[in-house]
Automatic annotation (TrEMBL):
Record-stated family: Belongs to the TonB-dependent receptor family.
Keywords, sorted A to Z: Cell outer membrane, Membrane, Receptor, Signal, TonB box
Record's subcellular location: Cell outer membrane
Organism: Teredinibacter waterburyi
Annotated protein name in UniProt: TonB-dependent receptor
One GO cellular component term noted in the UniProt record for this chain: cell outer membrane
Keyword Signal: yes
Residues in TonB-dependent receptor-like beta-barrel domain copies: 472-981
Segment forming the signal sequence: 1-34
Entry-linked NCBIfam families: TonB-Xanth-Caul
Length: 1014
């Protein structure tokens, strides 16, 4: 079995300096003996006060509980809440656009970890710059400003009293309570500079952030009101290189290439007619061995994107305690997150039949290091323009009543109604220069180098000046997509506690909850392309004499400053072009309205450049959950050793209703060589499927203190995680007609279950320092893997097989052509039908003589089990009264399954599984505070099916952050922060390192601010 090996944990020089300083200080300090100890927890506090609070939570809890507390009211240790969570052992984060967004726990994917607010399930939607079926249960921390949060508790073992859904962990976010805080007020402001703005053209160099909190409690301390609010604007430029598809092929020896389905007309049973052989002048270097799997890229794309992210958060809390035994709390939580992106792309799409030179690397699954195509008739290079807007709003209204009925019995009633909604739109104008006679790509660097050779002498395609410029650019195809996600949760809980004695307490409770996710997607690329020049383009003169004035020259290579030295400057395509989408779209509307070329300008909805209003996904998933639990807490003494045991059992039943309503495809349209569309039914067809399941989840936590400063823990539990909304859908969607792929849902999926075992030992050797080591094991059953089945759907037929197609191939051979050239296939079929291939709008439709199209359909199934296991080590140490301290932790995690990169087809493996490490040095004394933090995450599998069954791995990443503050007075503090100080980048690859999926050139972000407390 061949698998990609992870990179070893390495400390960079700046990190080694931190470690060395900590070691020197440690060498001059003696370990002190701790005093009051009570529980286990992994803390992540930047400053001494917050770390002490976290340590108290850790020591006093029964079970494995980690905690983060605000250093001061409204001041968390990191500017981003996810960045704070990653410093807890066992937790790691996924970054989107360089910012922490989602949390994994002990190798469990973010969608299988539950995030609650004050113990209430929180709805999740996605706003990541993409428009499509992006619905997820994973909570996106980008929606939440850390300034409105009071703290976070992380439960890494299951408890009967805690809500389900966290297969790996439950993260409970705590808001501020006025009767606990009292009379306080703060206001803070920051200026933020993201260095990537220097790579763009629209972003502001400095953007504002402002936050504040007001808390009031009356003199009797029985009525209080608090409000926390935050506004943030952040500008950055996102520089990304990506490849849409890597397509696996199998070498057939010296000829290398085999294309399934392209049969030799003389030997139909022999499917090894090669599109590229040495006899056709193809140069192949380091060819893969016969039978060896290799990969070919579909394209290379550079994308430069200017982003503006705006957050608005508010939390209003009212508390009233009319008597000593009754407290009522009402919360209103609101958040809004808006992402605006202006994107420019430079790309080329490949045609394998035109390969003239290819060189392979020596990896287990070879990928090209050099890739070159040569064309007789010319091809295009694209300069697509995109505009994206996504707005997420979340609101929650909740009421909680705590009632001490008697000295022994207490009850808590909690109700909330919460909603999260995202509305996203993206518009794209496809713009091509159809003057390329050769394409070149060098994949041997971290960043692929793209180059082209042009010939613009054809007056119908270019301006004949020998330079790739605006006079060579034509409109092509436009798309506008729209998506909406809404998740609603209505939850009612009743919890109770009965105290039998000082050492025995029984907790119990019931819950009723309804979760509904409604997803709407109108994918303009699948259901309504706007023809604005067509795939082959038109004469640029069609757009008028002012056309060149719409364009601005742009060197796309300049948007990747970290890779300038490594790119082959002489080969790189610097002659990029940029434009504003709005004026371009208006120009296309004008040409369409003029009626000058209806074959190449059409399908504008109502004559405008806008979304056509067609949803190709309309899905609603509703889960009705009923649960009940009991939990016995018992304190005991084993000889002279005090201990605690908590034993619980939770029962939960879930009914699932899945409804989809979409316009089903009724025919397929072969538009050009490798471009396909779908003809959809006029009316949407709704259909529903249901599922149900129930679970019993036991839990047992035991801790024992052999001495005052040592605690031993054992926890056993069963936890569960639910399938994603997309996996539960009832319909089957066509992914890509060209590659014959589809995917479907399965509402009958069972939840994933994990049987968990935790063993740990903690030594609290001083009041504020400790060391711990722990083992965890998770046996996960019913894990949702994937299976690819071959099936026909909706009666759709395949024009690329059958008698019409075979006759066209035979006619091509007779004419001396290449029967595997897709353009020749398309044109010959048109000719055989009596149609003119020169007419761009002429398409081929399947008919009854064509066989049913068999789709490779990816469906989710409960067919996988796995074992996850690992160790966690943590150290927190303060060096006496010097003010210096350090925190170190390391998590090693493994599983008994992994992707074998040499195999094709569906494979099961754990997404997100990786080792992590943190090293933090801090100082807190006399009003001066600083923290230097290093976080490292090893390489991990981020997607089993990035494209079809092609895996994707995020490469090992580290980040160094810095924060400092100085108290000018007891009320006034100035702050400074630096994130990703060394400007580390994010890179993802496939079966080999050269098989790049994406590369983001990231940069540092700096904040300076002031804070005043009243």
């Amino acid at each position: 079995m061949s698998s990609l090996k992870s990179q070893q944990f390495k400390l960079k020089p700046i990190t080694m300096a931190v470690a060395s300083a900590a070691a020197i200080m440690a060498g001059s300090s003696n370990f002190a003996v701790a005093q009051d100890q009570v529980e286990e927890e992994v803390i992540v506090r930047g400053i001494r006060a917050s770390m002490a609070q976290s340590m108290d939570v850790k020591r006093n809890a029964v079970g494995v509980v980690d905690s983060i507390n605000a250093e001061d009211i409204g001041k968390m240790p990191d500017a981003n809440l996810a960045e704070s969570l990653q410093r807890i052992t066992g937790l790691s984060i996924t970054r989107i656009n360089g910012e922490g967004a989602r949390v994994s726990a002990r190798g469990i994917d973010p969608s299988l970890n539950m995030v609650t607010l004050n113990g209430r399930n929180m709805p999740a939607v996605t706003n990541d710059g993409n428009v499509g079926d992006t619905a997820s249960r994973a909570f996106d921390f980008a929606n939440l400003a850390s300034e409105v949060i009071g703290g976070v508790d992380v439960y890494k073992t299951g408890k009967a009293s805690i809500t389900t859904g966290g297969l790996g962990a439950v993260v409970n976010i705590k808001s501020i309570r006025p009767l606990e805080v009292g009379n306080k007020a703060t206001i803070a402001g920051k200026l933020v500079h993201d260095t990537t703005v220097d790579n763009g053209i629209d972003g502001q160099s400095a953007t504002p952030e402002i936050s504040g909190l007001y808390s009031f409690a009356n003199d009797d301390e029985n009525f209080g009101v608090s409000f926390a609010g935050a506004y943030q604007q952040r500008d950055n430029t996102r520089s990304n290189v990506f490849i849409n598809q890597w397509k696996p092929e199998t070498s057939v020896g010296t000829d290398v290439f085999s294309r399934p389905g392209l049969a030799d007309p003389d030997s139909p049973e022999d499917e090894v007619l090669n599109p590229m052989v040495p006899g056709l002048g193809v140069t192949i270097d380091n060819a893969p061995a016969e039978g060896q799997l290799f990969n070919l890229p579909s394209d290379v794309r550079y994308a430069l994107e200017d982003d503006t992210r705006t957050r608005l958060n508010g939390v209003l809390t009212v508390q009233f305690a009319p008597t000593d035994n009754l407290t009522a709390t009402a919360d209103i939580v609101y958040s809004e997150y808006e992402l605006e992106a202006d994107r420019s792309q430079q790309s080329t799409w490949y045609n394998y039949s035109a390969i003239s030179h290819i060189a392979f690397d020596n990896s287990a699954v070879p990928a090209p290091t050099i890739y070159q195509e040569t064309y007789d008739g010319g091809k295009d290079v694209s300069f697509a323009q995109q505009e994206y807007t996504g707005v997420t709003t979340s609101s929650s209204v909740g009421v909680n009543v705590d009632w001490a009925v008697s000295d022994a019995l207490s009850l808590a009633f909690d109700f909330h109604s919460s909603t999260a909604e995202n509305i996203s739109d993206v518009a794209e104008t496809g713009l091509n220069a159809n003057v390329v006679i050769a394409n070149y790509a060098d994949f041997s660097y971290d960043m692929p180098v793209l180059g082209v050779t042009i010939d613009d002498s054809d007056p119908a395609k270019g301006n004949n000046n020998g330079v790739l410029d605006a006079g060579d650019i034509s409109g092509a195809i436009g798309t506008i997509s729209h998506a909406e996600q809404t998740t609603d949760i209505v939850q009612l809980k009743i919890d109770g506690s009965f105290v039998f004695s000082d050492s025995t307490t029984l907790n119990f409770g019931v819950e009723s909850r309804e979760d509904t996710n409604h997803t709407l997607v109108g994918d303009g690329g699948a259901t309504g392309r706007i023809t604005m020049g067509n795939w082959g383009g038109v004469d640029p003169d069609t757009f008028g004499d002012d056309w060149e004035g719409y364009w601005t020259a742009r060197d796309f290579g300049a948007g990747f400053p970290d890779y300038k030295d490594s790119s082959r400057d002489d080969e790189f395509l610097h002659a990029g072009w940029d434009a504003d989408l709005g004026p371009i779209a208006a120009k296309m509307v004008d040409v369409n309205t003029s009626g000058v070329d209806t074959d190449n300008f059409n399908s504008f909805p109502d004559g405008e450049f806008k979304w056509n209003g067609i949803y190709n996904i309309n899905r609603e998933i509703t889960e009705e959950v009923t649960s009940a639990y009991v939990e016995l807490n018992q304190a005991f003494d084993l000889g002279d050793m005090p201990g605690n045991v908590v034993a619980g059992l939770r029962y939960e039943a879930t009914d699932v209703t899945s409804v989809s309503s979409v316009q089903l495809p009724v025919n397929l349209e072969w538009q050009s060589d490798n471009d396909w569309g779908q003809e959809l039914a006029d009316e949407a067809t709704p259909f529903s499927r249901t599922g149900d399941y129930s679970v019993l989840l036991p839990s047992l936590d035991i801790d024992l203190s052999p001495s005052d400063d040592v605690k031993i823990r054992m926890s056993y539990s069963k936890t569960m995680g639910r399938a994603s909304y997309g996996e539960l859908r009832s319909d089957v969607a066509i992914n890509d007609v060209y590659s014959k792929t589809a995917n479907g849902g399965n509402p009958d999926l069972e939840p994933m279950k994990s049987t968990n075992l935790d063993l740990s030992v903690e030594y609290y050797y001083s009041n504020d320092s400790y060391i711990s080591i722990g083992y965890f094991g998770k046996n996960v059953s019913n894990y949702i893997g994937s299976a690819v089945i071959s099936s026909d759907w909706y009666g759709l037929r395949d024009a690329r097989t059958g008698p019409r197609f075979e006759q066209a191939q035979a006619d091509i051979v007779a004419a001396g052509g290449n029967p595997q050239d897709e353009k020749q296939q398309h044109d010959q079929m048109l000719i055989n039908e009596g149609l003119d291939p020169a007419v761009e709008s002429t398409s081929i439709y399947a008919d009854s003589t064509d066989p049913l199209l068999m789709w490779d359909t990816n469906i989710p199934v409960n067919d996988e089990d796995t074992k996850i296991y690992g160790f966690e080590f943590a150290l927190m140490h303060w060096f006496g009264d010097s003010g210096f301290g350090t925190q170190l932790n390391y998590t090693a995690v493994n599983a008994d399954v992994a992707i074998d990169v040499t195999k094709t087809g569906g494979q099961f493996a754990m997404v997100g599984l990786s080792d992590t490490a943190n090293l933090v040095a801090f100082y807190d004394d006399n009003g001066v505070q600083f923290r230097l933090a290093y976080n490292w995450r090893d390489q991990f599998l981020d997607n089993r099916t990035q494209y079809n069954n092609e895996p994707s791995f995020t490469e090992a990443y580290y980040q160094v952050d810095f924060s400092a503050s100085y108290d000018i007075t007891d009320q006034l503090t100035v702050t400074a922060e630096g994130l990703n100080l060394t400007g580390e980048n994010s890179r993802r690859h496939g079966r080999s390192v050269n098989q790049l999926w994406s590369l983001e050139d990231l940069g540092a972000r700096y904040n300076v601010g002031v804070r005043y407390s009243f």
